């Protein structure tokens, strides 16, 4: 299993390539003269950013209000490092707190391809999960300080929000060419163009 590990990274950010509505989302880690870029879905970026915030709040609640949990780091607003070469596409992500090193650990695993029509049984899924450590799936593992994790989450939420605005009625993204809103049965109100 190829493991791309950064402990700690010089830089770990979420970013996009493309125009709103056609963006490709990336996590990019850099350090020790190397860069790892993995692609993922917008919803995965949003969920990861929200969970990082929740994890830090839970750590503060359980372990007290330590000074390193309240530190903040300068936000990274620079674009993704070019050229972007996708190392793999993310399927599963994991998030943990390492209490020994006082670091947030983010792990992104390569998506597992399943042949069409070959749905594995429950037993096969359990067996595949047990063998995951030996499988040849790529993994990106990043260890962040609480301040670095907070800066990552803040930027990730800004990146997600920078896309298309949502419809005020149904919440679906509004396209520049128009939007068929299910809350209006597919019709536009008279006078709106």
Output the radius of gyration.
Answer: 20 Å
Mean pLDDT: 83
Q: Domains counted in the coordinates: how many?
A: 2
Strands, count:
7
Instruction: Please estimate the helix content.
Output: 25-40%
Under CATH, the topology of the largest domain can be stated as: Secreted effector protein pipB2 fold
The major beta sheet can be summarized as: 7 strands, mixed
CATH architecture of the largest domain: 2-Layer Sandwich
Instruction: Report the top-level CATH class of the largest domain.
Output: Alpha Beta
Helix-strand category: alpha/beta
The general outline is globular
The separation of the N and C termini measures 53 Å
Q: Secondary-structure element sequence?
A: EEEEHHEEHEH
Q: In DSSP terms, counting alpha (H) and pi (I) runs of 4 or more, how many helices?
A: 4
The poorly predicted ranges are none
**Strand residue content:** 25-35%
Major sheet: arrangement of strands: 1-7-6-5-4-3-2
Polypeptide structure, described:
The protein has 193 residues and is α/β, with parallel strands linked by helices. The chain has 2 domains: 3-162, Secreted effector protein pipB2 fold (2-Layer Sandwich); 167-192, no CATH class. It has 4 helices and 7 strands. Strands 1-7-6-5-4-3-2 form a 7-stranded mixed sheet. β2 (11-17) and β3 (24-31) form a beta hairpin. It starts with a strand and ends in a 32-residue tail after the last helix. The relative contact order is 0.22. The model has no long low-confidence stretch (mean pLDDT 83).
